[in-house]
């Protein structure tokens, strides 16, 4: 019973994501792959981060991470900066194109929140937040084993 309920819920989440994709079509011109998106999220979260730290967060090799950063740098999404305290170390930071992309995402998030999420009861939103936080923590704990 529990597994079937989870499977049904996951299918519904896929349907919700497909419906919300229509609201985020304005972002398609950025042409970001899922791996690039995850890397950019890490850079945005940390403001500046080394390639080694990115590789750990992404569970990728240093060379694969470096190639991904090089492609994003070539496309204008990130820039590299030598660490003045350790010249052998390079920081990765968001470039202007990524900052513009995140500004667009924030605007679209506001529209989606107003259009859909604002229609939920406050208690539903609190339960949703607790659930997503709990699931996040469980996944992190499992991955760190």
UniProtKB/TrEMBL annotation:
Q: Which Pfam families match?
A: MarR_2
**Keyword terms of this UniProt record:** DNA-binding
Query: Can you say what this protein is called?
Result: HTH marR-type domain-containing protein
Example GO molecular function: DNA binding
GO process annotations (BP):
response to stress
Q: Which residues form the HTH marR-type domain?
A: 1-137
The beginning of the lineage is:
Bacteria, Bacillati, Bacillota, Bacilli, Bacillales
| Organism expressing this protein natively | Brevibacillus reuszeri
InterPro entries found in the cross-reference section: ArsR-like_HTH, HTH_MarR-typ, MarR/SlyA-like, WH-like_DNA-bd_sf, WH_DNA-bd_sf
């Amino acid at each position: 019973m529990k597994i079937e309920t989870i499977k049904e819920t996951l299918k519904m989440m896929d349907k919700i994501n497909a419906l919300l994709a229509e609201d985020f079509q304005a972002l398609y011109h950025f042409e970001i792959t899922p791996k690039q998106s995850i890397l950019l999220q890490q850079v945005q979260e940390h403001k500046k981060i080394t390639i080694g730290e990115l590789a750990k967060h992404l569970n990728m090799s240093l060379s694969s991470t470096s190639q991904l950063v090089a492609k994003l740098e070539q496309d204008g999404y990130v820039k590299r900066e030598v660490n003045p305290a350790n010249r052998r170390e390079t920081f990765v930071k968001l470039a202007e194109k990524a900052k513009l992309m995140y500004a667009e995402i924030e605007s679209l998030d506001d529209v989606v929140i107003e259009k859909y999420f604002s229609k939920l009861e406050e208690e539903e939103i609190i339960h949703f937040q607790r659930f997503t936080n709990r699931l996040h923590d469980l996944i992190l704990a499992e991955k760190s084993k």
